[in-house]
């Protein structure tokens, strides 16, 4: 649709020769780029996802056991965005790691622990508060 419109608009350019040929070539290149982008987008929607809900649940299972065994109510998310979902899956309440109220609370992270590692589940780990 876009390509046909672009080529139709180029055909309406005055004169003949280089300007008209250049316009047709430019419109064709633009149409090819748009079509290729659409094709890649559609193809990527069928690609398998690396981190699914089931994958996260399996990765968090050892952490959930630790939270239950130690009766932990709160975990601090470090960093905030990436650690929120795993904390929710453990059943603990979520707090922001740099909030004053979270000063002595263990932290869940996907990064190496800056302090003692309390439990390591591979993808995620719970660290002692620094």
Uncertain runs with pLDDT below 50, 5 residues or more? none
Number of strands: 5
Strand percentage lies at: 5-15%
How large is the count of helical segments? Answer: 4
Strand order of the largest sheet: 2-1-3-5-4
Query: What's the rounded overall pLDDT mean?
Result: 83
| Separation of the first and last Cα atoms | 59 Å
Give the overall silhouette.
elongated
Give the proportion of residues in helices. 40-55%
- In N-to-C order, the SSE pattern is HHHEHEEEE
Task: Give Rg in angstroms.
Answer: 27 Å
Largest sheet: 5 strands, mixed
Name the structural class. alpha/beta
Structural summary, described in words:
The protein has helices at residues 2-11, 18-45, 53-69, 80-90, and strands at 74-77, 93-96, 107-109, 117-120, 125-127. The mean pLDDT is 83. The protein is elongated. Helix 1 (2-11) runs antiparallel to helix 2 and helix 3 (53-69) packs across helix 4 (80-90). The termini are far apart. The protein is built from four helices and five strands. The longest helix is centred in the N-terminal third of the chain and has 28 residues, at 18-45. It is α/β, with parallel strands linked by helices. A five-stranded mixed β-sheet has the order 2-1-3-5-4.
């Amino acid at each position: 649709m876009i390509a046909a419109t672009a080529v139709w608009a180029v055909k309406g350019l005055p004169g003949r020769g280089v300007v008209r040929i250049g316009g047709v070539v430019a419109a064709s290149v633009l149409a090819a780029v748009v079509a290729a982008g659409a094709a890649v987008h559609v193809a990527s929607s069928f690609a398998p996802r690396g981190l699914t809900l089931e994958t996260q649940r399996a990765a968090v299972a050892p952490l959930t056991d630790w939270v239950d065994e130690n009766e932990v109510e709160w975990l601090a998310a470090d960093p905030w965005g990436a650690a929120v979902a795993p904390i929710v899956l453990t059943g603990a309440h979520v707090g922001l790691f740099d909030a004053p109220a979270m000063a002595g609370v263990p932290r869940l992270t996907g990064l190496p622990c800056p302090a003692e590692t309390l439990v390591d589940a591979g993808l995620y780990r719970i660290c002692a508060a620094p």
